[in-house]
Design brief:
The complex is a heterodimer of chains A (224) and B (153). In chain A, 25% of the residues lie in helices and 23% in strands. By secondary structure, chain A is α/β, with parallel strands linked by helices. Chain A has 2 domains: 2-120, Rossmann fold; 139-212, no CATH class. Chain B has one domain: Rossmann fold (3-Layer(aba) Sandwich). Classes of the chains: A alpha/beta (224), B alpha/beta (153).
Chain lengths: 224, 153
């Protein structure tokens, strides 16, 4: 899922100054699971803003409206909040960057402000801890590396073994960061597949990643 | 009714919300009553099945609805009926203090206490302690402390 974190409260309220009616719009998918922008987080942020503006002069206050939809990255879920968005001066989106842009694209006359910083594609390691696992590079090589991604998990995204900075299983950037190539070696050893390390992984075509510009997937068979 | 110390604080009747676990603090409050203990009349109790049920939203709502202070009172650590509800509550109280600080409310207006159901006297003490503390801080003011600087960029 996409992992995100709420922006500092002060930077959020600074962005809301000057509006009369603000819709805080949550997203019910990834950011609900990583507890950054779901229904609960919308309610807490709305309450915080209400408290914050309680002692502001009348003319500086704005009305807060709360709503959460299933996904902000799918316009089929926009219908229940269409009127709410139209009636608001500004939408404070608690979705990832995708949701923020998708709302902007659909409601072209609305200002959409992000309440979150979108971090990475990750997994829940334990409640409260999320870790990066995929870099969305566009051509997966997990079949060659024992299911551990050197693009996302090696600090240098190396493809054929560790660098000299790998020390006792840790990366040179921090003792808290595991060396991806140590993990790959250990995993392949457990699987009895160490021989696969003999094979060189060829130079990667990075045009499938961000280096090729914004990407698009088109499936003619499922088009409307 | 318990009397305050002196000065204008005497006039100030704070509103304090106590989120109490039914197994300990709520029973302790009951016991304090049975013992005819005299303590602060400004504490309003909300009974919870466990302090593990405490949500930052409940606490924020209490302040938004006019509370000047709040506390969460759960079982002694290691004695939670649901194993670690009170430990979770302590973490949430810490988190909520940060949320209060964000909007400029002194985080000391919120506290967490642990006690058992037999500690009626302690419950009365906690109510008095919080009342004195909130009286010293005064009526709830937003922006009473410097808010955390917005991260640049």
């Amino acid at each position: 899922m996409i992992i995100a974190e709420q922006k500092p409260f002060q930077s959020i309220v600074e962005n809301l100054a000057g509006y009369n009616r603000v819709l805080i719009l949550g997203c019910g998918t990834c950011v609900t699971v990583c507890m950054a922008g779901g229904e609960k987080e919308v309610a807490v942020l709305a309450e915080q803003i209400r408290l914050y503006q309680r002692e502001l002069p009348e003319e500086d206050r704005y009305q807060i409206v709360e709503a959460t939809i299933e996904r902000q990255c799918d316009r089929e879920f926009f219908a229940p909040v269409e009127e709410l968005i139209k009636d608001s001066d500004c939408v404070l989106s608690m979705a990832c960057g995708v949701g923020v842009q998708h709302i902007s694209e659909h409601f072209t006359d609305k200002i959409v402000i992000p309440a979150l910083d979108t971090k990475f594609f990750g997994a829940t390691e334990e409640p409260g801890t999320w870790v990066e696992r995929c870099a969305g590079c566009g051509s997966c090589i997990l079949d060659l590396t024992g299911g551990i991604c050197p693009v996302a998990r090696c600090s240098k995204s190396l493809f054929n073994g560790p660098c000299g900075g790998s020390q006792e299983g840790a990366c040179e950037i921090s003792r808290d960061v595991e060396c991806a190539w140590q993990l790959i070696y250990d995993r392949l050893k457990t699987l009895g597949r160490l021989d696969s390390l003999e094979k060189m992984i060829e130079i990667k075509d990075w045009t499938t990643a961000r280096d090729g510009g914004p990407r698009k997937v088109v499936r003619e068979d499922v088009k409307a | 009714m318990r009397q305050g110390s002196s000065g204008p604080a005497l006039e100030f009747k704070p509103q304090i919300v106590a989120f109490c676990c039914t197994y300990c603090a709520y029973s302790a409050a009951d016991l304090a009553g049975s013992m005819r203990l005299n303590y602060s009349p400004y504490v309003r109790i909300i009974k919870l099945p466990c302090t593990g049920k405490v949500d930052p939203l409940f606490i924020l709502k209490a302040f938004e609805k006019g509370a000047d202070g709040a506390f969460v009172a759960g079982c002694l650590e290691g004695s939670c009926h649901f194993v670690n509800g009170n430990i979770n509550a302590r973490k949430r109280v810490g988190y909520t203090k940060g949320l209060l600080q964000d909007v400029g409310i002194n985080p000391e207006r919120l506290e967490m206490f642990n006690l058992s159901s037999s500690m009626g006297r302690r419950f009365a003490e906690i109510c008095d302690l919080m009342t004195d503390k909130i009286r010293a801080l005064g009526r709830l003011k937003i922006h009473e402390i410097e808010t955390i600087e917005a991260a640049s960029g």
